[in-house]
Amino acid sequence: MNAAPTTPALANDAQRGSHWQQRMVLQPFYDVGGITIYCGDNREILPLLPDADLLLTDPPYGIGEGVKASRRTQAAKGDARWKSRVPTDYAPGEWDSEPVPQWMMELARAKCARQIIFGGNYYPLPPSKCWLVWDKDNGASDFADCELAWTNLDKAVRRLRYLWNGFQKEKPEKRYHPTQKPLELMSWCLNQVPEAKTILDPWMGSGTTLVAAKERGLKAIGIEANETYCRDAVSRLAQGVLGLENEKSCDSGAIKQ
């Protein structure tokens, strides 16, 4: 388990010395047009971020999806039925081996007045008047019919039906991450809080929340520990944008404009 840091967060760790002082200034992985990505450890980055209007995030649930997704892909590769369409080979990982520590979830919530948290049914969150229900329109399958997002919004329960089942999708959309949410879904979530101008996603994965925010001209901050997914997010954010020559390459470090 990840223990909660001391207060102020990590600042009293004498062993870090000048190294900690250097890290007090956050270095974005990407910072273009009001969209910022930090690649690193949430425990160190999240306490240093400014507040935002809306927390819109899909944290790990602790159900081992990183390992299970890789196993499904390997099994499909040996199945003749998948010969013409091999599933995406997601690298195995332990990122979903346990839920986010409660202190970290509370810290993320404290930074935003409005909150939408997918997988909220896996966390000890307060009673909610408004759950957001994503009906995945899976039909007869072994996968869950719906996913739930806990909110602290003062409105009735809302539901979106949107097909997202392997190769069967409502609209064509490339998958970069095993638990990636559809762009349409995250845009719909933003619709629930139209007054929000700044968005925070501390568990951004491949950046769907940030792409949805960018399409609306909103500012957003995302955090992701896996550099591959950070690069995927940068690629998605760059799609359809003019003047890409003004952006520095990922290979040279942070991207700014």
Description of the molecule:
The protein is an alpha/beta fold and 257 residues long. The protein is built from 7 helices and 12 strands. The protein has a single domain, classed as Vaccinia Virus protein VP39 (Rossmann fold). The protein has helices at residues 17-23, 42-45, 65-77, 102-110, 183-191, 208-215, 227-238, and strands spanning 30-32, 35-39, 52-57, 112-118, 132-135, 146-151, 158-161, 164-165, 168-169, 198-201, 219-224, 255-256. The strands form 2 sheets. The chain has a 10-stranded mixed β-sheet, sandwiched between helices. A two-stranded antiparallel ribbon has the order 8-9. A hairpin with a 2-residue loop joins strand 1 and strand 2. The longest helix is centred in the first third of the chain and has 13 residues, at 65-77. The model is unreliable at 5-23, 66-77 and 242-252 (pLDDT under 50).
Provide a quick synopsis of the model:
With 257 residues, the protein is α/β, with parallel strands linked by helices.
